[in-house]
Amino acid sequence: xxxxxxxxxxxxxxxxxxxxxxxxxxxxxxxxxxxxxxxxxxxxxxxxxxxxxxxxxxxxxxxxxxxxxxxxxxxxxxxxxxxxxxxxxxxxxxxxxxxxxxxxxxxxxxxxxxxxxxxxxxxxxxxxxxxxxxxxxxxxxxxxxxxxxxxxxxxxxxxxxxxxxxxxxxxxxxxxxxxxxxxxxxxxxxxxxxxxxxxxxxxxxxxxxxxxxxxxxxxxxxxxxxxxxxxxxxxxxxxxxxxxxxxxxxxxxxxxxxxxxxxxxxxxxxxxxxxxxxxxxxxxxxxxxxxxxxxxxxxxxxxxxxxxxxx
Length: 311
Prior knowledge:
Elements: E1 2-11, H1 15-26, E2 31-34, H2 60-73, E3 77-79, E4 84-88, E5 93-96, E6 99-108, E7 112-114, H3 134-137, E8 145-149, H4 153-162, E9 168-172, H5 182-189, E10 194-197, E11 200-207, E12 211-218, E13 224-228, E14 231-234, E15 238-240, E16 270-272, H6 284-310
Parallel strand pairs: 1-2, 1-6, 2-3, 6-16, 8-9, 8-14, 9-10
Antiparallel strand pairs: 4-5, 5-6, 7-15, 11-12, 12-13
Helix pairs in contact: 1-2, 1-6, 4-5
């Protein structure tokens, strides 16, 4: 097994990780990205983005390609498609099938993934009517009918947001009352474009090239019905990608990594950025901003550590 040593290793190559790589490399420290997938992260799967400043409309893959090219300019070493066997944050060691990576600092950028409904048709229609981001994709449903699945703050707030574009927004919830804050509920109940479908769960998502129908089951009566929609937005929660290192640092009750404003975690020399950390907004732009902050402070950590070692 080949052993490699870097000043900074970034675990994850999405927008947060690539941004961090750029800033770390510009700080004149040896920098590498290690990822279990190809670089680019979730945005690479988005057909179009229209809320990244400077690009009125840009393909998600195209934007991430530009991020990657920018990292290449500064000599960032890239190790995509790695089968990671273990991560030890204390010793700053990452073991893969091919390499043993050692670092002086680690920046965690492993992201998060939406909790899925787990029903037939969901995976098949991602990007063709199934979306987990109303802010990203809401504008594509102008004058159309969509369904939001969930009853918490995120679901109800995103349903409200979608009414800016859609003619009709169904909120499908498995209970007969919402879990969202009362003030959020009141606003939604006053919105004429929103209709609530109570005591119901999605059993299947159907369509041809695009979504056309959701199959619902009433949890009380067991009655099955079809609801005609153009889009489905599941908002039943997010889960952080922390399996490789969970329990080694401070996390919140949902598993997200807790950081301070410099992106430092509870483990010395370890930073966390982007969707994997506790954050009020999960967007490409906020991930990129986190990457810049985390990398700058990782470089500062390295500089202070070298000074301390010298003394």
